[in-house]
Amino acid sequence: MDYCLWCDVSFYQALTWNSVFGLTEPDKLCEECRQSLTIISGEICRVCGRMLEKTPKGFVDGDTCLDCIRWEMIWPDKNFKNRSLYVYDGKMKEWMNRFKFRGDVVLCETVTSEWKKLWLKECQNEIIVPIPLSGKRLYERGFNQSLVLAQLLDGEIKDILTRKNSEKQSKKSRSERLQTNADFFQLKEGIGLSGARIVLIDDVYTTGTTVRNAAQTLFGYGARSVSSLTLARGV
Ligand SMILES: [Zn+2]
Ligand SMILES: [Zn+2]
User: Fold this and answer.
1) Burial (Cβ within 10 Å: 0-12, 13-18, ≥19) of residue 178
2) Domain spanning 47-233, CATH architecture
3) How far is the CA of 62 from the centre of ligand 2 (A)?
4) What is the distance between the alpha carbons of residues 112 and 107, in angstroms, rounded to a whole number?
C-alpha cells in the first residue's frame, strides 16, 4: 500500500506488466490525483507549445497562435520555442501553490517522470539555465522553484542569470506585462555564450514575457538557440 504525496489517501498501485517487472517507478499519486492533471497533447502552437484545441479559433493562424506572431514581429529571426508539460488549470494551480508557496518540494516527485520525458524529447542536449528569482523573493521563499525543477533533469545546469528588476509581474496589467523589456535579466560576469544552445527552465508560462526576455539577454551574449521548458502553461 502507498500514500498519495498530494492528497495523502492510501492506494494500491495499478498492476501492469512493466510495474510487475520493476520497469516503471511506482506512482507517487493516487489515480484520482494523477487524472486531475492534464498533460498538453495533440496539436500545439509550433512556437509556444500551447494546445491549439483549447485556443479560441480566432487566435490561431495555421500552426501558430497570434501571441507568437506578435512576438515574432517584435523580435524577428530569433530561434526560440517554448514547450510545457501541463495545462495550468485549477488543479495545476493548486499543485503549484503547494509547491511554491507552502514549500512542499517533495511534491515534485509526482511530476519528475513526465517532466524528464518531455525534456528528453525536446531539449536534452541544451545547457539548462533556471530562471532566477529576485534576491527579495528568494529570501522570502527560501528556494528558487525553477532551480528545483531544473535539478529534476539529468543535464548540465548553469545558474548564470540574475534579475535586475524585482517588481512583481502579477501586479501589472496584461499590457504592461506584455511590454518588452530585455533589461529584466543580466548575465553573471565572465561567462561566454557564443554559439551555445540553451534551455531555460521556469514553473509557468503565462504571457511568455519572462522567458522571452531571458532569451533576449542570452541571444545578446551570443547564444545560438534558446528554448524554454515550463512545468505548466496557461490556456
Ligand atoms: Zn491523491
Ligand atoms: Zn504560440
Assistant:
1) middle
2) 3-Layer(aba) Sandwich (3.40)
3) 11
4) 9
